[in-house]
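WP5 quarterly update. Target: 1-alkyl-2-acetylglycerophosphocholine esterase. Source organism: Furnarius figulus. Length: 390 aa.
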Amino acid sequence: ADPLSLPRSMGGMLALPQGKGPHQVGCTDVMVGHTRQGLFLRLFYPCLPRAGATEPLWIPRPEYCDGLADFTLRRRWCSALLSIAIGTCRVPVSWNGPFKPHSGGYPLIIFSHGLGAFRTLYSSVCTELASWGFVVAALEHRRVPWDHSAATTYFCTAEAGREEWILFQRVPEGQKEFYFRNKQVHQRAEECVQALRLFKDITSGKSVLNILHQDLDLSVLKGNIDLTKVAVMGHSFGGVTAVLALVKEPSFRCAVALDAWMFPLENVLYPEVPKPVLFINTEKFQTPESVAKMKRLSSRNSQTKIITILGTVHESQTDFAFLPGKLISRVFGRRGTLDPNKGLAITSQAALAFLQRHLNLAEQFDQWDDLLEGVGDSVVPEAPFCRPNL
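C-alpha cells (predicted):
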C-alpha cells in the first residue's frame, strides 16, 4: 500500500466524546502578556447553547504537528503526514460559546500537561469535567529560563503580528536528567500558581487583556468562579507538577495526578505536601519506585488515594486514546485494551468523587466514592504489582 494513502482514510476521524454532564461546554484560548513570563491556556467552561456554534481544531495550528513529529518520532519531516492525519480533527465544544452564569461560582481546576504535550491534548477530560460544572484552565507551559517541556509553544511579542516559537528541548548532553527536570517541575508548579493569581485578578475586577482578542470577554468570569474551591490536576509530568503546586500554593485544596511521573520531585519535599492527592494510574506505566513515592504521601495523609485502571497505557489518559488507525498506533505507541470511553469515565468519575470530598461540593459525585478505594470494574487499589500474590 502507498503509505501516503494511509492518512487520507483517517483524516478527521478523531472522535472525541462530548461531555456527559448536564452542562454544554464552551472553550476559548487565553494569552496574557507579551513574553514567556506571561500565561497561555485553553479555558473550558459551562456555556449556554448557541445555534451554529463553531468547534475548535484539536491541533490548533500546523506548527504543533511539527512539535509532535519531533517529540514522538524525532523526525520533523513526518509533520506533513501528521497534519493530514489529524490536522482537521475538532473538539466537540462551542468555541467562544457564551459563558453560563452561576451565582455561587464554579469550582476551578488548573490543569498541567505532560512532557511533549500542549494545552489541547487533554480536551476529552477537560471537556468532561467542565460538563459537570467546573471551569478548567489547561495550561501550555513555557516559562523562562528552563521550561521547554511542551512539544512546541509560542508567545506574541509586543511588536504587532510577530510570534516567537519555543521548541521542545531534550536533556542537554552531560547534564543529569533529575536536575534538568527538577528545575522544570518547579517552574511548571509556579506557572500553576500564576494561573490561579490570574483568576484571582479577574474575579477581583481587575481588567485582564487577552492578547489573542477572542470573542469571550474574561470579565464574565467575575462572580462566577468560587476561589475557595480550587484544585490542581495534571498528567505524567503534569501530575507531579500538580503535587508540587500543593506545596507552593495554600489555595489549592487538593490535587488529581493522572499517571504521575514522580521522578523529578526531590525527596525533601514529600513531608511538605500538605493536602490530599488522588493518584489515578494506568496499568502499564508506573514502576515500583514511582508507586513507593506515592505511598510515602499516602502514609502521611489518609485522604491521599492511589488507584490503577486496568487495561490502560500511559497515553490512555490523553486524547490520543480516541485516535483510530494503525498509523497512529505506530506513531504514538501501543494502545490500551480498555475501551477509551470507559477509561475516561472511570478517570473523571473518580476525580469528581474526590473533588466533591475535598472542595466541599454540594453535588452527587459521591455516588462514585467506591472508585476512590479501587472498587469497581477495571479498577484496583494501589498498583497491580504491589498487590500480594494470592
